[in-house]
Design goal:
Structural class: alpha+beta
Strand order of the largest sheet: 1-10-9-6-7
Radius of gyration: 16 Å
Length: about 190
């Protein structure tokens, strides 16, 4: 899997609003889902996006036995625990993010979308397909692991794909995008 990562001009007065990272078998894009300043948390949005992204990438790569939405639920719980007692995670302006992720597992590409985001799959010999995440009050990652059950998920056979693009759109801010290219016959086998 070859990856190209683009975070569109994420710097502004309130810091970064999107974060993207990849490994040889997984990719994660997260973006801010709030327009108002962060409240209830002294860590800020940058910290939240980075912790969420890094922890999700780790879960996707080291827990092939867990479903992709279960990996997100684990990540949300881990990130919430890192806030500590000084943060009010029930505050209405606590950090919130949209998440788009995928992983190669065996001969499949598994993907997940929660919040404003898109997974576009490029099929060999066919038109691309686009999947978007759910809308509404449960369409952003905060501190509730149960929200992961509302993510849009799916699977595609790798041999049918030439590539994929993952985009997470930050609310009223630039987002991030990862473009993946697949080689025919590639399969990931966990150690």
């Amino acid at each position: 899997m070859h990856a190209e990562v683009v975070v569109d001009d994420p710097r502004n007065d309130s810091g970064a609003r999107a974060f993207a990272l990849t490994s040889p078998e997984a990719a994660v894009v997260v973006a801010a889902a709030l327009t108002e300043p962060v409240g209830g948390c002294g860590h800020g949005m940058d910290w939240f996006l980075r912790r969420l992204g890094v922890h999700l990438l780790a879960r996707l790569t080291d827990r092939p036995d867990r479903g992709i939405s279960d990996c997100l639920a684990d990540t949300i719980a881990e990130t919430a625990a890192l806030h500590g007692a000084r943060c009010d995670l029930a505050h209405k302006a606590t950090p919130a993010a949209s998440v788009v992720a995928c992983r190669v597992l065996g001969h499949d590409l598994q993907y997940l979308i929660l919040g404003p985001g898109v997974v576009e799959l490029r099929h060999a010999g066919g038109p691309p397909s686009r999947m978007t995440g759910p809308d509404g009050p449960l369409a952003a990652v905060r501190a509730r692991p149960s929200v992961a059950a509302h993510a849009g998920t799916g699977t595609a056979r790798l041999h049918t794909l030439t590539g994929a693009a993952l985009t997470a759109d930050a609310t009223a801010r630039p987002g991030a995008r990862i473009t993946l290219t697949f080689r025919p016959g590639t399969a990931y086998r966990p150690a």
